[in-house]
Amino acid sequence: MNKGILVVISGFSGAGKGTIMKELVKRYDYHLSISATTRKARTGEVHGKDYYFHTREEFQQMIEQSELIEWAEYVGNYYGTPKKYVQQQLDAGRDVLLEIEMQGGMQVKEKFPDALLIFISPPSAKILKERLAGRGTESPQEIEKRLLRAVEEVQYMKDYDYIVVNDNLEEAVEKVNNLITYDHYKSCNSVLLIDKMASELSGFATKGV
Ligand code: ADP
Ligand code: 5GP
């Protein structure tokens, strides 16, 4: 068994991250981290399934008690990744997906240098706007704030390991899955195999071939 891979998936609001993540979890053995947030639940969102919904005071406490791997403020609300679940899954050799915005992505990159960072981009700004409006979950004012935030977020695209364009959903899901699959072959994610081979081969030197 090898280490689990920590996968960061980021992208502008409305790019299709959530849709891709749902498909990945449905089809493959990935474990999705549930974030904490101070934003209000959208219709149909469930505490403990979509997010852990908290007050600002509760969120502040989580920060102070070092319960979060990373956190950031996004369009007026706090979002953060609880540490415990991620650590447990990685220790058990499972791949963990974090769907987080870019400031958080950069914090993860610094703390977990072996993490795999994937940026989901829409094919164009026009399509992004259409998708965000088409989702029907935010007011026109909120949509404007998110699109203006995307103007700032574009600077982080180059800091990601890979960029996947979400044009055809099916293709985008498989591209992300392939990137994670290939990442397992990187030597940094094969430390247990390296240790095993070193130990077995050293037997040749001590006990003879
Ligand atoms: P994000 O999580 O990045 O904010 P969502 O996954 O909520 O974005 O997707 C935004 C909207 O775009 C949703 O209504 C979703 O159904 C739609 N969508 C996602 N991917 C595609 C795609 N490849 N083609 C067309 N519509 C898409
Ligand atoms: P939404 O309100 O649309 O669910 O999420 C808004 C933004 O917050 C998205 O870009 C989403 O990826 C990001 N986000 C969700 N959870 C986290 C988290 O735990 N940490 C950070 N930094 N961003 C998050």
Walk me through what this model shows.
With 209 residues, this protein is of the alpha/beta class. Helices cover 46% and strands 20% of the residues. It contains 8 helices and 9 strands. The chain has a 5-stranded parallel sheet with strand order 2-7-1-8-9, sandwiched between helices. Strand 5 and strand 6 (77-82) form a beta hairpin. The two termini are 26 Å apart. Residues 11, 13-19, 131, 134-135, 166, 169 line the site of adenosine-5'-diphosphate.
List the helices and strands and how they pair.
Elements: E1 6-11, H1 17-27, E2 30-32, E3 36-37, E4 52-53, H2 56-64, E5 68-74, E6 77-82, H3 83-91, E7 95-99, H4 102-111, E8 116-121, H5 125-135, H6 140-153, E9 162-165, H7 169-183, H8 191-207
Parallel strand pairs: 1-7, 1-8, 2-7, 3-4, 8-9
Antiparallel strand pairs: 3-6, 5-6
Helix pairs in contact: 1-7
The chain binds adenosine-5'-diphosphate and guanosine-5'-monophosphate.
